[in-house]
Amino acid sequence: DAKTTQPPSMDCAEGRAANLPCNHSTISGNEYVYWYRQIHSQGPQYIIHGLKNNETNEMASLIITEDRKSSTLILPHATLRDTAVYYCIVREWGTYKYIFGTGTRLKVLA
Amino acid sequence: NAGVTQTPKFQVLKTGQSMTLQCAQDMNHNSMYWYRQDPGMGLRLIYYSASEGTTDKGEVPNGYNVSRLNKREFSLRLESAAPSQTSVYFCASSDEGAYEKLFFGSGTQLSVL
């Protein structure tokens, strides 16, 4: 079963920051949080991952709470091309099982 | 590099027919996966292979078999297709180390009539 909970949908104005929350209250100390997105019906694309520290790359920032029970993906300046379904995933430690939940459908509005 | 290649891209089957979905990766990854995605839903893990010669069940393995033919190839077989197996099938592979990012193919759209 998916170990993460996300809102089913969100809207964001173009040019504004999109903040996508994820709850992973049962995460273990050595399990990473991953974010992927799926545009239309393409294969999901890796965005970012983190363990306990905040992370930033060219696509997004990841903020993980101190207790690691939740995280937020931030797209700093959303564009129409960021319209997609965003998945937050916690990989089970010691396994290769990446379990996707239902994700958040982000719609960026012009 | 092509990344992860899936064939075919589209397939229509009749109930009871069998077929094999092919997946190959050229990134020298050890781990490979098969997911299915039903309309409007997230991805569900069918089977995965942590390394050549090993396979394990995921969330929804019933009705499927897999073969890890070699390090590059991981096939998914439907022995007797059912309408409930109508879905988009994605193959993925992951790189090494603690981070193990997933790389996905473009998917196979399968319809079972």
Overview of the molecule:
The complex is a heterodimer of chains A (110) and B (113). With 110 residues, chain A is an all-beta fold. Chain A contains no helices and nine strands. Chain A has strands at 9-13, 18-23, 33-38, 45-50, 55-56, 61-64, 70-75, 84-90, 104-109. In chain A, strand 3 (33-38) and strand 4 (45-50) form a beta hairpin. Chain B is 0% helix and 50% strand. Chain B has strands at residues 4-7, 10-13, 19-25, 31-37, 43-49, 56-57, 65-68, 74-78, 87-94, 102-104, 108-112. Chain B is globular. Classes of the chains: A mainly beta (110), B mainly beta (113). At the A-B interface, strand 4 of A face strand 4, strand 5, strand 9 and strand 10 of B.
Largest inter-chain contact set: A-B, 23 and 29 residues
- Average pLDDT reading of chain A: 91
Class based on secondary structure composition and strand pairing of chain A: mainly beta
Report the major sheet of chain B: 7 strands, mixed
Order of helices and strands of chain B: EEEEEEEEEEE
Q: What is the topology?
A:
The complex is a heterodimer of chains A (110) and B (113).
Chain A: E1 9-13, E2 18-23, E3 33-38, E4 45-50, E5 55-56, E6 61-64, E7 70-75, E8 84-90, E9 104-109
Parallel strand pairs in A: 1-9
Antiparallel strand pairs in A: 2-7, 3-4, 3-8, 5-6, 6-7, 8-9
Chain B: E1 4-7, E2 10-13, E3 19-25, E4 31-37, E5 43-49, E6 56-57, E7 65-68, E8 74-78, E9 87-94, E10 102-104, E11 108-112
Parallel strand pairs in B: 2-11
Antiparallel strand pairs in B: 1-3, 3-8, 4-5, 4-9, 5-6, 7-8, 9-10, 9-11
